[in-house]
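This section describes the prediction task in plain terms. A model, or a person checking by hand, is given the sequence of a single protein chain and must write out its three-dimensional structure as a string of tokens. No templates, partner chains or ligands are provided. The sample shown here is typical of the held-out split.
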Amino acid sequence: MRIGFALPQFGPLAHHPEEIARFARRAEELGADSLWVGDRLIAPVDPSVGYAGTDVIPPEFRAALDPFTVLAAAAAATERVQLGTDVINAPWYPPAVLARSLTTIDLLSGGRLLVGLGTGWSPEEYQAVDVPMAERGRRLDECLDALNAWWTENPVEYRGEHWTVPASHVDLKPASRPHPPVYLAAFAPAAVRRMARRADGWLPVAVIPAKSGSPDPVAALTEQLGGVRAAVEREGRDPAAFDAILRINPGVGASVDDIATTLVRAGREAGIQHAFVDLVYLAENPGQALDLVQRVLERARAS
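The expected answer:
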């Protein structure tokens, strides 16, 4: 299994931006296969929708570094690891701006970018970017169309309901051909259908330890993957060629053994071949995070 880690972007880790390049370089030296960013903008004081089924926003979301800047720093500091976004909230960005940023990072990294897109869940974040949240699905569809045009055509032209790219010369294309692989985070039925029709792969999540009364995260993942592959097949595509990269979110109290066991089980029981671990709840600084990177890799690869 390929094993990656989130870059130091949120919470206490975000207060050490000068450590991003060192973290990325050292994680690569330790044997990490990929490095990842997410996309948080604000942490509302009185959220109308909390995080992950709760009524609150974690305090770790009160500090967030820009995902494109963090990923660019990691790209410049590394040579081998893949660089992923899980996820960029695509409806927040004009597609031309998003395409320029992603293309730059893919070129900086020599074609190591994995593009993970989603729509987010916070109404207040949509207010902050002045985008109607009710339009998020349609805007994601438009974004996918516009990104494909930007990456594969020259001149580029796109005209949609929400965004327009006038016919334009765009000579810089990604190093990945025809473009970086695009993954979608999807759980609702309509989102799963879009993903099965349009994406190169899925971005599932496993939370450990599981909440009391919640299903085993690996068993739930295995069941979800079955549904996703069936949806891909209904779209006339080959489910065996449809990828999945698992995000593991260890909560407070999760141990290195918990993480390693989940990684190993996800590979053996669900067939996951690539996963990454977000250490935001377990590390106070990048040094602690790197220690966890080393211990997780050693424990998982010894199993």
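For orientation: The mean pLDDT is 97.
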